[in-house]
């Protein structure tokens, strides 16, 4: 989420931002690889992810959504689309990130958008 936020603010190459981020952040190699995969995918698919956000954020223009909330939503939507991580886990993690890094109401806002997206998916 932090790399995606920084990328959104600067549009630097993803590899450069990863190198900078991992100089100070500590994680096991599998965790780093997974984080990089999510970051790169969300950055690459930003247009499609923003379309999904706009579709499910009733009465909210994308430019009115806080940058940190957009980063959290992009990351979560990408993870929901590209991995086998259970939707409930992805949504819970995104809500916790919003509560920690954004405003008081961000958790509910993020939850509403991600839950609307989840409900739009075909049943498995």
Would you kindly provide a brief summary of this structure?
This protein has 124 residues and is mainly alpha-helical. Helices cover 75% and strands 0% of the residues.
Protein model, in words:
With 124 residues, the protein is mostly helical. It has one domain: N-utilizing Substance Protein B Homolog, Chain A, CATH 1.10.940. 75% of the residues lie in helices and 0% in strands. It has helices at residues 2-10, 14-24, 29-44, 46-56, 67-82, 87-101, 106-120. Helix 1 (2-10) packs across helix 2, helix 1 packs parallel to helix 3 and helix 5 (67-82) runs antiparallel to helix 6 (87-101). The longest helix has 16 residues, at 29-44. The model has no long low-confidence stretch (mean pLDDT 94).
